[in-house]
Request: fold
Amino acid sequence: MIPAGLIQFEGSLWLWIFAAIRPGAAFMVAPLFGAPSVPLQLRLVVAMALGMPALAAGNIALPADGMMSLTGILAIAGEATAGLALGLATQIGFAAAIAAGETISNAMGLGFAAMADPMSGSSNPAIGQFLSMLALFIFLGSGGHLALAAIITQSYEALPAGQAWLGHDAIGSLIDFGGVILAAGLVIAMPVAFALVLVQIGMGVLTRSAPALNLFSVGMPAAALAGIILLAMALPAMTGSIELAIADGLGMARTLAGR
Reply:
């Protein structure tokens, strides 16, 4: 016979696991928390820590039919969907910096110079990696990680556990927001990229007037040097634009959370 205390502990354990689904799903795709370098154990502890306030407030209850029933599976899927949407909205804000970096890298002729991105585990161009790290510093410096934690915790008020299915309007707005942020990334890179295109045109005219001039030995270093100078000049304005894109990502997550 199973002791009564063990049965109560099992029920509490299921509640803790259920409470950690939404924060855990958000941290899988959110900036910083979703990095492969972040240990899974740390992610699990933080997810449970964020789910505990909602559990203490009484906003979380297990499905009456149990977790392995159809109702329980649908509740788990709803929690995971809500968490993924909140984390993805924040991650989309970082896409502006990545898109801008890739555009500038290609204009500089450094699209082949890829570096391993510790945040995603993939390879990004060098300039894209630089702007991605800049976005991460802005995210941490502005308290974005704390704002994301607050959004996830407060989302239980508007989206109760087990009833967190997002409507098609919310999903459509998230998709539209992704397009807006990608366009913002191109706008961020436009001044530097357009100036580099003019440099490339000038080098083409110079090569045409002096055919003996080796374009690869002169053009690529000139484009790289011009890109570095232009990037240094435009960096303050780009920083403000990236900060605005990150704030928009958090704002979108707040909108999805019903805040």
